[in-house]
Design a protein that fits this description.
The structure holds 2 protein chains of 2 kinds. By secondary structure, chain A is mostly beta strands. In chain A, 0% of the residues lie in helices and 50% in strands. The termini of chain A are far apart. In chain B, strands 2, 4, 5, 9, 10 and 11 form a 6-stranded mixed beta sheet that branches. A 5-stranded antiparallel beta sheet of chain B has the order 1-3-8-7-6, with no helix packed on it. In chain B, a hairpin with a 5-residue loop joins strand 9 and strand 10. Classes of the chains: A mainly beta, B mainly beta. At the A-B interface, strand 4, strand 5 and strand 10 of A face strand 5 and strand 10 of B.
Amino acid sequence: EPEVTQTPSHQVTQMGQEVILRCVPISNHLYFYWYRQILGQKVEFLVSFYNNEISEKSEIFDDQFSVERPDGSNFTLKIRSTKLEDSAMYFCASRAGTGGNQPQHFGDGTRLSIL
Amino acid sequence: GQNIDQPTEMTATEGAIVQINCTYQTSGFNGLFWYQQHAGEAPTFLSYNVLDGLEEKGRFSSFLSRSKGYSYLLLKELQMKDSASYLCAVRDDADKLIFGTGTRLQVFP
């Protein structure tokens, strides 16, 4: 069964550095998302992306964050000048374009640790 | 505001039936999803409801009442591998999922 893949599985970075989290959505999917989950807390929406532009973003997704679909397969989340509170599991998700009942499929996540 | 409530933890015995409830108050509604999440892993899709009623899928069923802002996930013939967190999520008008805090289910032999 096709799946969303994310790399790296774990990223350790010094505070203030930039990180890029990478995702390869399921190949025929058209809608892409990033969520995060701080340890012990609920999954929170960050941003959605469709037709090469941001569809919706949350209050968390400020100027520190950006997303890009640099080619036909990758979908990246960049975090500039990381802060301690950015430590979390970051999940990428994708959804097929047809039918409102199509679920978002999640990748295994990247655990980001800011030191 | 957006609010989704689930019990924090539940326990059950192997072979039993368990019902996990979810109530929601959201500014928009385009369906309710249940996901299973094992510790340190990705949420995995279980079920979807957009109309009132029961959806059955093998050992798992999910119910929705839109007028009451209420859903439940029913797990039958529990197995040890069903020990996980179960996440209730509402898709709002902007196509994003709003998650509850999840219910951690522990299945004992």
